[in-house]
Predict the structure.
Amino acid sequence: MGVTAIQTKSAPLPKGNYSQAVRIGDLLFISGQLPLDSGGRLVSRTVAAQAQQALSNIRAILEAAGGTIAHLVQCTMTSLTGRKWTRSTEPSWLAYLCFRHVLWSPSKKCTTEPT
């Protein structure tokens, strides 16, 4: 089974020596996405806007690989600032993850790393 690198100009290029995603057989593994636009600029300082941008990047990579957001099986978001995830971030998730079998639970979908 071969490994195929996936790359799109619709999402920011990786900062390191790795691919935006790799396809192995029928599976696609997407690298961690930052809240950067396709030009590599930070979009905002708000958690909701950053979450939405990271999800936009994931969507662009999925589409470049021939998939859609409906093909997403697992997504973990991490806040490195220690800010709490609240209902204000929920619209960002719901805008992208409104498809069958997805449940919203901040305690299960988000983790917070100490600064």
